[in-house]
Amino acid sequence: MSREDYTNEKKRLDQKKDVDLQEEIDRNKESGGVAYAELNTDEKVLARVTDGIYRQPASAIRELISNAYDADADNVWIDTDVPRFKNIIVKDDGNGMSSAELTNLIHHIGGSAKRDKSKENLGIVNEVDPSRSPVKNRKLIGKIGIGLFSVAQLTREFFITTKKSGDDYYIEAHVVLHNYADPDSTSEVDARGQSFSAGRVAIKSIKTDNIEDHGTNIFLKNIKESARNQLRSTEIWSLEASENDGDEPSSNPRVHTPNFHIGTTQSKNQDIVARDEELPWSYSDKPEDRFNKLYDAMLSLAGKTVSPKLHEVFDNYLAMLWSIGLSVPVPYIDKHPFDLGSDDYPIIYKIVNSLKGKAERVELSGDQSVSDFVNLEIDEKSPAFNVEIDGVKIYRPIRHRRLPSTQAAVRNPILFIGSYHNKFENMKPTQSGGSLSFDAYIMWCPKVVPKEHNGVVLRVHNATGTLFDETFMKYQVAEHTIKSQLVAEIFIKEGLESALNIDRESFNTAHPHYQIVSRWLHSALRQVIGKYKDLKKEALEQGKVEQASQFRQQLSETIEAVANSRNYDLSDIRPVYFDDDSDTWDSYKFDSDSVFERVPKRHKKGPKKDLAKEKIRAIVSVLDLYGVLEDMSYEDQEALIADLAAVIYSRDS
């Protein structure tokens, strides 16, 4: 049999298997009977997805939220059973799944219908553009159809209950995943090209009168102990307990208790609270206010430490809420960076795409926003997508206004914006990776809060699993101080998807698109660092000028106060000149070299010499007001002033 014949025959058998299961599910709608099936993958390597390729419980929850977004949900509600975490429920009001869609999901893990043109009739994607969702026209986040099975990080048993609007029944699938860490469980099929069993499924229909209801509920049963321990921050509390118990000193290092946490339960009876929670919100607060208070709690610590760290301020659970906010396509806690205007940022620069170009100043006027001026845009900039976890409405915890300040020369944040678009029409897709388009910003601010936000994050269709890369895609220039004050986001509108690794938490760094984004970012950083140095130099010079002006003003006010106390007018004070100044009658004039003979060199030139002269003029004016200089010869006057200057500017001063 030829390869083509084999492929066609396999496709025919797969289609027959899909049809048979779909028909059995449909036949059971009235009877309530159960249909049984194997959960299959299209590749053996994907069968191992059920062992859990995702690193944290937050990753699994992030993937389920992304699936709901792709299914056109407006809302996602998650109940984690905090602080016990025995079971987790994820609900959405998306499109729901038909029997055909569920069948495809069960039989083809990793054969995503979102990217398979032969399955466009399932209604999972937009009829015109298969890269978008069917109803709301959202750019799809899901890549290869394995997102649902991120739950293997949390449990091996779960229920899917789903319904499409207009149907008079729910479909419930009870899924039990195989454990591929056990070598005996991989013996089903080893032939090349065959599908592989990832678990067992029992499917039934449940009649309902709620015709208009739609969406999908996922009930994760008996969460793994390892996942529960992570969510409960068990390592923190157990180490703290070992520090405080026993007569012998513990070998464990002293553990910092988070500023805010959900508390903990007793190890022997997890229904009994062992330590009360310390939360930044109260239970009377609205869901949208709770996350704001979580953010404000982090920001409030900025003045008490160099730069607060996420996992020192929050326990694992609260840090999970924060990281999910960074990952999924929810609105910013404040304005989107491209919605900022001149009232928000007095200083904005545009990054240019030429090799040796310099960032250009952007002058916004009136109610003009950043995106209006430079024609920046991203899909779903402000998505109508609400995520609630345990009564907390999740936002993207990045703010670009009202940030912590310092006493540094440059005190206000600086925004740099840029974009890149290239269709690579004269190159083969295998060489270029296809079209690439993105918009970006880099924000310099005096202090990045929390510290984990220092870096760059790549958002593919406004979502990410990678979070911030503090190396800025391995930028080699050793500008450590400036780099530590930068936050950057790159919004990929087209391209880079094929560079995402299977867990969406890392990239294939050799991919052409990743390399192009990296080079663009490094060029942008060069412009940002150069412009910041220019602005810092200007600020330092301006600071010196302002400081000198304030100093002169203070001297003038002091002399005026002395004159008033002596019943003189300022006009009665004779001016003081040096040999390098202009001369007038009735004035004191001294030789600079003589007066500054014993003054340290650092006070004999430039701005410091000018300020030194101002001090000496003030001293002469005070002496004149007291009549000290009246009967002295010019030589004695100059000698007195020289002696006073030597005392004032002694080497120990």
Key structural traits:
653 residues, alpha+beta, Heat Shock Protein 90, 4 domains, nine-stranded mixed sheet, 32% helix, elongated
Question: What does this entry look like structurally?
Answer:
With 653 residues, the protein is an alpha+beta fold. Helix content is 32%, strand content 17%. It has four domains: 3-224, Heat Shock Protein 90 (2-Layer Sandwich), CATH 3.30.565; 234-275, no CATH class; 332-373 and 396-540, no CATH class; 573-648, no CATH class. The protein is elongated and about 120 Å long. The protein starts with a helix and ends in a 5-residue tail after the last helix.
Summarize the structure.
This protein is of the alpha+beta class and 653 residues long.
Compile the SSE list and pairings.
Layout lengths: L2 H29 L2 E8 L2 H4 L9 H14 L4 E5 L8 E5 L6 H9 L49 E7 L5 E9 L18 E12 L7 E6 L4 H7 L2 H11 L19 E2 L7 E3 L11 H14 L9 H4 L2 H12 L20 E3 L9 E3 L7 H5 L11 E4 L2 E2 L20 E9 L6 H4 L3 E9 L10 E6 L19 H4 L2 E9 L17 H54 L10 E3 L9 E3 L1 H4 L10 H20 L8 H15 L5
Parallel strand pairs: 2-12, 10-14, 16-17, 18-19
Antiparallel strand pairs: 1-6, 2-3, 3-7, 4-5, 4-7, 5-6, 8-9, 10-11, 12-13, 14-15, 15-17
CATH topology of the largest domain: Heat Shock Protein 90
Proportion in β-strands: 15-25%
Number of domains: 4
Mean pLDDT: 84
Q: Tally the beta strands.
A: 19
Q: How far is the first residue's CA from the last residue's CA?
A: 96 Å
- Give me the number of helical elements: 16
The general outline is: elongated
Low-confidence stretches: 183-193, 246-253
Pfam families: HATPase_c_3 (PF13589)
InterPro entries: HATPase_C_sf
Organism: Marinobacter oulmenensis
Region (Disordered): 1-25, 241-269
